[in-house]
Amino acid sequence: MAAYKQRVIALTKRQGQTFGFFLRVEHGEEGHLIRCLEMGGPAELAGMKDGDRILRVNGTFVDGLTHSEVVDLVRDSGASVTFHIMDAASYKKANAERVDLSDPQGRPAANGVARQTLKPKLCYLVKSSSGYGFSLRSARGEQGLFMTEVTPGGMAEKAGVKANDRLLEVNGENTEGATHDQVVEKIKAAGSSIMFLLVDEETNRYHQNKHIKLGAGLATVKHLPHKPRIADMTKGSDGYGFFLRVEPNQKGHFIKGIDRGSPAERAGLKDMDRLVAVDGQEVDDCTHEQVVDRVRQSGYKCCLLVVDKDTDKMYTMGGASPMLFWEETKGSTAPPSYTEAVHLPAPVRPSTPVKGRKEELKPKLCKMEKTSAGYGFHLNGIQGVCGQYIKEVVMRGAAERAGLEDDDIVVEVNGVNVEKSTHDEAVAMIRSSGSSLELLVATKSVYDQLKAKGVAITPLLLGQTSSVQVHTPATLEASKEEEERLEKARPETPPAPRRERTPSVSSSSSHESIDERL
Q1: Residues 149, 315, 485, CA angle at the centre, nearest 5°?
Q2: If we measure between CA atoms, which residue out of 67, 98, 28, 77 comes closest to residue 337?
Q3: Which of 59, 90, 362, 485 lies at a C-alpha separation of 20 to 30 Å from 143?
Q4: Most distant CA pair in the chain: distance in Å?
């Protein structure tokens, strides 16, 4: 069997510059993909190709790591980073032949079995009448405490505990520096149930060699008895059929009032489920209004990650996020979201020409307020060509409601002409605009015709009859009710009267998206 050699590429970026590519995981594709190479950027000049897979970052094998972990490794490397990469065809063939890609020479795995992802594990134990069914040992010359005398068929073994597993955490608290007696006391004080973070010898050695600190954020949750639930829903004529509420003295967003026979009920949502994520984006630190906005921007299909009371309590005990379950279950099927410039994920609205209507040679002045999800579009530019244009306008996002459409050409940003500006300059102007943005744009047809006539494109062309589309906080009041029937009304239905709001706490979300600009 032939070896699969990896290419080594070292990239360096200047201050304020990116490495010039997107790192993505995609539905139906394995591995960490290189996409959207910037023409003339460091990545393209170094020889990276679209679809290449990243296998190592600064020597650390990443093929089994989550997207967010790989992003962190790249970001932590600063201005210079070294990648081991493999082209798409070789990567797929190597996986089909069960090649051990952690070997830089790409030799076949031992005994024909590919190496599995090496992760610590979270194990939830419930005490029986005979106890937990394990003992702890410490050994001279060995750091830490280890599991021993794991009773066959006992509670520990059923929870995933193996002999010689090293103990890292008890109920979310690190115990690596604690004495044997101190750990025993913690276990006794825990009562009838306890959560361990454990690591086997091979996994421990692997992470030590890579200088990766082990924690619950890297753990597998496959052994945990209570599972979060993923609810895939398609909106019906009457919406999704549930209320989203914040409850007094409880942190989080809760499902209430599920309609019988609704998409929410068919998807398995239960009363008082806590909502963890919308379309793979964690919402724990979002306000109620921000969560409602995310659900609405999902369009006619929405995927929710929820936990019931027992599951929530179990994950909290271990200091772990239910997002670990999402990453382990959905993997690369999480919908991509973008961080570059001003676009983000959601169904995009197709740009369809209207037949039989004479085109008015006027630009559009589009004013919008940034939502929790951003402005909802992607600013594109072509290397070596002046001008910027709009792409991937999010359905019912701020940009679409302000009148932006795919392929609109940007003429002005906040009153400043950008026709001769570089892409980076235009992006910088948008980013510095704060929470509101005003774009003067024109469709490509209008732009080309006005340019052919030698007409300067300015707001003066709008005239008195122009319909300027404005998106401000006032236009969203109907969507900011504290207890609201999500997507109940059709788009043409007038907003319902505003009700009193329950106070909510706002803070920024720290959840990594699935597609990062690097």
Answers
A1: 155
A2: 67
A3: 59
A4: 89
- Residue 84 CA to residue 73 CA, distance in Å, equals 13
- Looking up tokens 């019906």 gives 236
Look up residue 253 and give its two tokens: 């967003």
For the CA atoms of 345, 351, 352, 356, what is the dihedral angle to 10 degrees? 150
Contacts of the segment 11-18: beta carbons below 8 A, 24+ positions apart: 11/42, 11/43, 11/46, 11/80, 11/81, 11/82, 11/83, 12/42, 12/79, 12/80, 13/42, 13/79, 13/80, 14/79, 15/79, 17/42, 18/517, 18/518
Q: Which residues contact 284 (CB under 8 A, 6 or more apart)?
A: 251, 252, 276, 509
Tokens found for residue 95: 């996986």
Q: Which of 326, 346, 328, 320 is nearest to 398 (CA)?
A: 346
Task: Say if CB 134 and CB 150 are below 8 A apart.
Answer: yes
Topology at the third CATH level for domain 229-335+511-517:
Pdz3 Domain (2.30.42)
Q: What is the CATH number of domain 364-471?
A: 2.30.42.10
In the chain, where does the domain assigned CATH 2.30.42.10 lie?
7-112, 121-218, 229-335+511-517, 364-471
- With helix as H, strand as E and coil as C, how does 90-152 read? HHHHHHHCCECCCCCCCCECHHHCCCCCCCCEEEEEECECCECCCEEECCCCCCCCEEECCCC
What counts of helices (H) and strands (E) characterise the chain?
Answer: 13, 26
Q: Give 481's contacts (C-beta < 8 A, 6+ positions apart).
A: 496, 498, 499, 501
The Cα–Cα gap between 391 and 394 comes to 9
Identify the residue whose tokens are 């921007």: 297
Work out the burial of residue 292: count CB atoms within 10 Å of its CB; fewer than 13 is exposed, 13-18 middle, 19 or more buried: buried
Q: What is the DSSP letter of 276?
A: E
Token look-up 């394990």 returns: 134
Residue 145: name the closest of 185, 181, 195 by CA: 181
- The number of C-alpha atoms within 13 Å of 359 and in the hemisphere containing its C-beta is 16
Which pLDDT belongs to residue 495? 40
Average pLDDT across each block of 10 residues of the chain; the chain has 518 residues. List them in order: 75 85 84 87 89 89 84 85 90 83 55 59 94 88 85 94 95 91 92 94 81 85 94 88 88 92 92 93 88 85 94 94 86 35 32 43 87 80 68 81 88 89 83 87 86 81 45 38 40 37 28 32
Superfamily name and number for 121-218? PDZ domain (2.30.42.10)
SS (H, E, C) 297-361: HCCCEEEEEEECHHHHHHHHHCCCCCHHHHHHHHHHHCCCCCCCCCCCCCCECCCCCCCCCCCCC
Burial of residue 320 (number of CB atoms within 10 Å: 0-12, 13-18, 19+) = buried
Cα separation, 498 vs 228, in Å, equals: 33
